[in-house]
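Notes continue from the previous slide.

Worked example: a multi-chain complex. Inputs as given:
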Amino acid sequence: MKSAANLAREEIKQLKPCVHGGEIWNLSGRKVLEKADILDFSSNVNPLGPSPKAIQTIKKSLSLIPYYPDPNATALLDAIACSFKAINRENVIAGNGSVELIYLFADVFMSKDDVALIPVPTFSEYEKAVRKVGARPKLLKLGPSFKVDSSLFIREMRGTKAVFLCNPNNPTGILTPRADIARIIDEALSENVLVFLDEDFIEFVDEEKRFSFVDEIGRYPNLIVLRSFTKFFGLTGLRVGYALADKEVVKVLSAAKAPWNVNCLAQVAAVAALQDVEHMRRSSKLIKKERKFLMEGLSSISVLKVYPTDANFLFIDVRQSGFTAAQLKEKLLKYGVLIRDCTSFVGIDEYYIRVAVKTRRENLKLLETFKKVLEK
Ligand SMILES: Cc1ncc(COP(=O)(O)O)c(C=O)c1O
């Protein structure tokens, strides 16, 4: 035998790793910059970090480490259910980050040669999860505004097994209106198509509850809504996310998941985070104010085309600057500012970047650095 790797399934051998933001480890590993020196605008997480109450809870819970965690994360599922109107524990499944649930969904519902519709550019792991099970991603390129055209989407959806939608979308920050999402889910229901709606960034949207479909899952047995503690709650390194769906859907997903998938500290921290209403309020207020500040500041730089956003990050076309996204990233990095070069996203060319909304001091540094690099 040359290598046991040759025995891997064919579809696994074809997989390529996805590129993500937050590359500070790579960079630090290569000693390009020490971690503390980098202002990381490439990772879209709450700039205030996690709730201090969640951190305190973790410290008080270290004695749990010698034990297996609750395999069903019962207290966490209850806390999540309590935070919505029409949700019971049976409608919720927790994951090792929400990304685990993307893979679990594809594993449970997609078979070889099934087709999943994915509008691009979007989060790259949907495509990889679909490919991993031998199913076929059907990539639908969004137009120049990067808005989802629901009529076109519905036409393209026919004959597929599932569709992925990210709202607001990563990397564009664009929020699809409620009526369009409802139309898509209604049509999907009548065609027996599953809708995997990723709302990982929805807590950053003003009037989040008006846009979320979590409280609609009772009406839509074909809907799975994804949420995360990574972005708004800032529990990024702990890896905890969840999905909400009809209880029969949750039952099959739960039967297929790996045991003890959410560790004990992540479980208690997530419960504490959900209870810290004050931290949530402060985070929403900061993002709203700083998003506007950063949007205005970056839009005033004539060579940058900044797209409207409802999330905690901004998507920018930099072609007028004369630099590609990769070149601009290198230039900003020399000043200790890390941005996301979006070239790895399928469906766009090499002239798009994404920057996260951070605190005023950090946002000022970003603006100042852009000006230094672009107005030289
Ligand atoms: C749209 C979207 N969904 C899901 C994820 C996975 O997040 P996590 O596994 O940290 O919850 C990410 C991470 O960047 C994302 O951008």
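Summary box: The chain has 14 helices and 13 strands. The two ends are 58 Å apart (CA to CA).
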